[in-house]
Amino acid sequence: MASINDAFLDLRSHIPTFPYEKRLSKIDTLNLAIAYINMLRDIIKSPHDPEVTIKRAVRMAKSGVHGAPAWSTSDLMSRLAWIDWDKLGMRSIQQ
């Protein structure tokens, strides 16, 4: 059981979290990790710049367009808003 808990601690350190969050539950951790992995997969598979890919998905989700990536409507989008995009050399996805 300790090794499972250690694995969740490690997983939590690799997904975006809010600065004020204490600790995500195991199910929330898994759901967020799935959304994050799917977003990263879509970025890698896309022929477009990562910034373009993310912004397009955000616009689709906000507009209610059918076919928007599942990760773009998840809790992940609000967490991505906390990222300091300037440090990554990108403009905010909210723009």
UniProtKB/TrEMBL annotation:
GO terms for biological process: developmental process. Pfam families: HLH (PF00010). Residues 1-40 form the BHLH domain. GO terms for molecular function: DNA-binding transcription factor activity, RNA polymerase II-specific; protein dimerization activity; RNA polymerase II transcription regulatory region sequence-specific DNA binding. It comes from Pristionchus fissidentatus. PANTHER family: BASIC HELIX-LOOP-HELIX TRANSCRIPTION FACTOR, TWIST, BHLH DOMAIN-CONTAINING PROTEIN. InterPro entries: bHLH_dom, E-box_TF_Regulators, HLH_DNA-bd_sf. This is BHLH domain-containing protein.
